[in-house]
Known about the structure:
Elements: E1 10-15, H1 20-24, H2 38-52, E2 56-61, E3 75-78, E4 93-97, H3 103-121, E5 142-145, E6 160-163, H4 179-182, E7 185-189, H5 199-207, E8 213-217, H6 224-236, E9 240-244, H7 251-258, E10 262-263, H8 275-282
Amino acid sequence: MGQLGPEAPRALVVYVIHAMPYYVAGKLQSAPMLNEHSMYWEIAEMVRQLNERGYVVDFYDVFCPEPIDWSRYAAAFVQSDRLAECPPELPVKKVFYCTENHWAFQNLAEMTRIKAFRDRTGIWVRPERQTRVSFSDEYADYITLLGTPFQGLLYSTRPERHQLDISVAAVPAHEPKDVPAARANFLWLGSGGAVLKGLDLAVEAFCALPEAHLYIAGGIEREPRLWQWLKPLLDAHPNLHYLGWVDVGKPAFAKLANNCIGAVYPSASEGGGGPWPNCCTSA
């Protein structure tokens, strides 16, 4: 604030606040599990670019219920439903920072996958990726999209659209791939909501393919009911390799990806499909 001055225009950002205290302290790289999801890096970069353009930034966590004084802001970048709260007479440039598929599609896709998993295994798992209902797209002046053209199909046609390139944790130095050695190795990389992201389908397929190896990178223990199903299969099938959560910014992940011929990721709903660019840049 001291550098920009009290008369500087203000911008609002509503997104996940996890890494912001570290960024403000100049210690972004110390944020826990910074590379677990691209959003942690994105929020810091959004604030940096707004500051660079002369804006003082107020940051609200996406789950913060506190009222917003919209009259203070020249621009608002909002990932949640809160654009609907902005009085229409205010001259605020409203940007819906869209990071996922439409809530109706996303939520139905996960529940459909969970029902199919239960039909095959007799096990109900907890929904992990039910997203908040949001109508921000109907109030926005602009909408940013990270995914394929499909991502935008169910959103309002009202806002002007801007396609963003999804970020990756790191781009490692190129290493030649030993294709014959990697030919039977495949990688599943994902975060929460493993049934939505098709881990169960991949595991079932590789259980029937003992000559092929599946490396599973993701913290599945965080989903106890799914883990109870997966753990016995890991013990029974030596071609299934569970790695737990991995830091995709580390050289070890680049080596793992380069030792695989491809990624297996039969997800039912992705806003941008972050695991794919991380796998591709590392492999």
